[in-house]
Amino acid sequence: METFEDKTTSVLKAAWIIAAVTVISKLIGFIRDIVIANYYGASMVSDAYYYAYQIPSLSLILLGGVGGPFHSATVAVFSKLIPSLKENPPQNVNKLYSTFMTATTIFFVALSILMFVYSRQVMGWIISGGSAEMISLAAEHLKIMTPLLVTGGIVGIYYGILIIYKQFMLPNLSPIIMSAAIIGVVIAVPDDSKGYALCWATTLGAVLQLIIQYPNVRKLGFRWKPNFDFVNNPNFKAINELLFPAILSSTVGQIHIYVDMFFTSSISEGAWTAVGYANRVFQFPVGILVTAFLVPLFPIFSRLVAENDLDGIKKYFNKGVGVLFFASIPIIIGILTVGYDAVKIIFERGAFDQTATVMVTEALWFLSLSILPYVFRDSITRVYYSFNDSKTPFTVAFLSIILKYLFNFIFIVKMGMGVGGIMLSTSLVTLFNAIILGIFISKKIRMDYAELFKNLLKMLIAGVISLGLCFGCAKFMPVGLLRICAVALVCLLSYTSLNLLFKMDYAAELYNRALKRIGK
């Protein structure tokens, strides 16, 4: 039987693999964004695409992506039913898989038809502050991208199956397919035909993403035969009890985005595109961290719940979130000191001008305040899912809609903060969700936060000192890559040294592991 130390080492190895693969995927994604920025800038066409993409992305990324409800429900339920990862799944598991796939396909096909028929009304409701031309353009983009709704849920189930079997590589590599499709199509299409090139390329990429997953799932022994055993099926009921509140929770998260879209449409042309780019820059380091650690940890949480090992959950949670906190603070320092430099180097070319760079940087500064509550919220949510409870995260997310609208109204309408106000409200709502979820988990398990936040305090002190040193360094360096490298070096040396000086647990452990690896 594996010890805690053995499992920790296994998780760290998996985290390194996932991080490396995700870095490649994110880099290709950055190249995609650079290409889009070069050809479209922050314009009406790009706004229309990103407005329309919010609907299919709800299925492909939020619901069906790694960490989404379909992936989470698959891991939480199937990991407890599969007796051995070295053998083909038993008949009852394959039957449940077929039932789940059949129900998912029926639901999303119906949804895609509705979105296609009522695309004009949907986009008119979402961007009611936009012009008639903008709404019509976004509606046409949405029609073209409706197939993404069907592929999203199925891809999510495939992700879950592959991750249960510790095949971490493919789920994290497959987004490259979509990025490559967008890059190829946008570059290849003549300038006078680029209006709808983005949405056609996105649709093509989503279909390819589904196709590339299928052979490995089939190789594991899973066969999809239409099965309508939806009633009196306790395992399918367990999936639904977890899935539907999780879908509603993700949908509520999308409502937050629609609230942002409503307020952003009244700011200036290109504002929503700026928000989108800021999110992409934000998700590059933070998404890698969260994916790398929570993907291998989630199946462990589910198995520990099945074994009623509550102490194990506390240990893994504190270790995972502690490492995420430790790695997140340098990211915040980097964004605050050289965020402008990074945005300028990555995006400022072609149609993407200095005004767009300033807008994206402003949004990014305020969004960086959400990093610590973001990683805590996503981690504690996995603990809820392991207990087959997705209702509590949904309830908390639903209550925060009012808070989101209120903050946006204050920051945008009353204070005129622009895109920075949108992101500040996002950061405050994320903090609210993290605090409430952290408190309510005590109904299931009494977490040991004392050690976690004691270490966080040491990290924050080290972070504040490092931030001052990095600002001092940046002040005397010219804007550009040299300043980014200099600040990164100062941050690495000062932040790591200070945490070791303060005897912060995770820094010392990671340092010792690094020394052992170097010694080998």
Describe this structure in words.
- By secondary structure, the protein is mainly α.
- It has 2 domains: 4-447, no CATH class; 449-520, no CATH class.
- Helices cover 81% and strands 0% of the residues.
- It has 20 helices and no strands.
- The protein has helices at 4-40, 44-63, 69-81, 91-117, 119-126, 132-145, 147-164, 169-173, 175-188, 197-219, 234-264, 271-306, 310-347, 354-367, 371-386, 391-414, 419-440, 449-475, 481-501, 505-519.
- The protein starts with a helix and ends with a helix.
In brief, what are we looking at here?
It is globular, with a radius of gyration of 23 Å.
Number of strands: 0
Largest sheet: none
Number of DSSP helical runs: 20
How would you classify the quaternary structure? single chain
The helicity comes to over 70%
Unreliable stretches: none
Distance separating the two termini: 26 Å
Order of helices and strands: HHHHHHHHHHHHHHHHHHHH
Structural class: mainly alpha
Q: What is the number of domains?
A: 2
Mean pLDDT: 82
Shape category: globular
Beta content: under 5%
The value of Rg in angstroms is 23 Å
